[in-house]
Amino acid sequence: MPLETPLQRQLMLSMFLIALVACSQLGLLQKFASPTEQSLARNYIDLLRQHRHGAIETAMDPSIGGPSLHDTLVSMAALIPAGEPTSVTLIGANRMNASGSETVNLTFEYNFSGKWIVANVGLLNASEAAQSLR
Predict the structure, then answer these.
(1) Do residues 107 and 119 make contact, with C-beta atoms less than 8 angstroms apart?
(2) Is 20 a residue whose pLDDT tops 90?
(3) Beta-carbon neighbour count of residue 119 at 10 Å?
(4) Among the CATH numbers 3.10.450, 3.40.50, 3.40.960, 2.40.50, which is that of 33-133?
């Protein structure tokens, strides 16, 4: 059945574009963050969930640490629901190169049986850190 009005055609075009964007969003995010970088970031979130703050503090960039770092990590971990997540989705990623270093920021959405959190991990020189895990 042909679309009769310009409004109907515009609505169909809009729906098509929304579907196209939704399908390509994950693919676009994957271009900014390799599977290894995603795994590394999720590992840090898991360390926080497991209250293994020392491992995070050791890996943390000293320029953003400080005397309150441990207490901040404890407070952050307390916000995460107990148990295993029912789903984890990469919802944001960006990569920046500046002054000879590379930063990758990854944002994940975690579902804990209807309780949701969003967690962001910034990886400085992510490719070097990922290679050191191999």
Answers:
(1) yes
(2) no
(3) 19
(4) 3.10.450
